[in-house]
Write a structure and sequence with these properties.
Keywords: Hydrolase. The protein is of the alpha+beta class. It has 3 helices and 11 strands, in the order E-E-E-E-E-E-E-E-H-H-H-E-E-E.
Length: 134
């Protein structure tokens, strides 16, 4: 679920094991925004700060940028960084038979990246749902 405000939700995961975190709308403009408990946060690019402080309150960085950063910061290949963001989490969650892989029988949810790790298209259940405009 996408929310204009990042805050813990009272909603639970499907099995009720943990509260879900609402996701900040990536198109939210830079500036001051209401948060919770009367507090506000400042969005400045990829970063969120508590208003009036230099305290980092979160991030709105996209996953593709995280993958590129991880590759750059660690020196690993883009392929290794992608595996860290896809297959490894799926395996930890017991979903590697369906997610984080391109094998037969998997969900066919995928992102096509260029050689620099920039998103070219997004596919859900084997159907293209987004394509970068040239």
């Amino acid at each position: 679920m996408v929310s204009p405000r990042p805050y813990p939700s009272t909603e639970s995961a499907p099995d009720g094991t943990f509260p879900a975190m609402k996701i900040l709308d990536p198109k939210l403009k830079d500036g001051v925004h209401e948060w919770r408990d009367g507090k506000r946060f400042v969005k400045d690019g990829d970063k969120l700060y508590l208003e009036g402080t230099d305290t980092l309150a979160g991030s709105v960085v996209t996953l593709d940028k995280c993958v590129r950063n991880f590759s750059r910061f660690t020196g690993c290949s883009l392929g290794e960084a992608i595996k860290c963001a896809t297959f490894n989490p799926a395996r930890c969650l017991g979903l590697a038979h369906r997610k984080g892989t391109l094998r037969a029988g998997a969900d066919a949810d995928l992102v096509v990246l260029d050689r620099k790790g920039k998103v070219l298209s997004t596919w859900v259940k084997g159907k293209e749902v987004w394509k970068k405009e040239n």
